[in-house]
Amino acid sequence: PAPPLPDGADLELEGLAPFLTPSTAFFRIDTALSVPRIDATAWTLRIHGRGATERRYSFDDLLNRSDLMERDITLACVSNPVGGSYIGNARWIGVPLAALLEEAGVRPPSEGGPADQIVSRSSDGMTIGTPVADVLDGRDAMLALGMNGRPLLPEHGFPVRMLVPGLYGYVSACKWIVEIELTTFDAFDAYWVPRGWSDRAPIKTQSRIDTPRPGARLDAGRVVVAGVAWAQRVGVDAVEVRVDDGPWRPARLAAEDTTDTWRQWVLEWEAGPGEHRLSVRATDRNGALQPGDESPPAPDGATGWHTIDVTVE
Ligand SMILES: Nc1nc2c(c(=O)[nH]1)N[C@H]1C(S)=C(S)[C@@H](COP(=O)(O)O)O[C@H]1N2
Ligand SMILES: [Mo]
Hints:
Blueprint: E1 44-49, E2 55-58, H1 59-63, E3 69-76, E4 87-96, H2 97-103, E5 117-122, E6 127-131, H3 132-135, E7 142-147, E8 150-151, E9 161-163, E10 177-183, E11 206-211, E12 217-218, E13 221-230, E14 236-243, E15 248-250, E16 252-253, E17 263-271, E18 274-284, E19 307-312
Parallel strand pairs: 1-10, 12-19
Antiparallel strand pairs: 1-2, 3-4, 4-7, 5-6, 5-10, 7-8, 7-9, 11-13, 13-17, 14-15, 14-18, 16-17, 18-19
The structure holds the ligand Nc1nc2c(c(=O)[nH]1)N[C@H]1C(S)=C(S)[C@@H](COP(=O)(O)O)O[C@H]1N2 and molybdenum atom.
């Protein structure tokens, strides 16, 4: 089991996304017009390709492993606009992907391995390309069998999906996975690459205002402003909120779960009557400020500060 959530990781404020996203509320992004229904007892995963000795695993092989782990990991879609909802945080159960690759004899490129890309394939023909180096660098990349204490829902990849903390879903999170091929970025473009998206895409640092909602009409006085921020692999060290053209004010951060999860924040604002504009920005643990220049999701993730307008009466 994952360690229990640290006290104060979930502020449980009205209008704020819960720290752990219920599976039925988790965003769904895929190209499947009908959700694949896979018989777990007949399912197999094949690992093969450059520098790999071919291996096959059944669902039972994975389920009965002694290295099953549970981890809290935030997953974001590259197409999430600033302030958008294509992001969720769940408690995943899975097998360390690095262990499976090591069983197939895979070495990272830095140790002379001939493959720099893992191409995962799903039962419905999706291909997703992930850097081998990222999977083998010690992060909790996994083949997930469970989500929030239950088997995966069909919509989220039952029986098995991949997850790599810190990478957008289209370069890491293959659902209904059936095959892992070791290859190179030069030799193969995964599904979204010829459609204009980057072949490598780490999740960008972002922050979001969950409450108040854009366009809200509020009573003058104390207003709770709250949201989430994420800087995966590094961690969020500060969140600041600006009202109109005022100074950036530090928000209070909720307790951190792990650097691979989003982090809640809250600020109490004495709101005076009128139209107001609220913006948020995060700073990661390396001191890097979330970029304010606005760019669209394509080709490798949106940037900009989430900004909302509210009316105080
Ligand atoms: N088989 C398959 N896996 C897929 C996709 C897909 O279209 N097909 N979409 C990917 C994208 S773009 C994202 S953001 C995540 C979303 O995972 P979720 O639907 O469980 O939130 O799944 C990834 N895995
Ligand atoms: Mo995505």
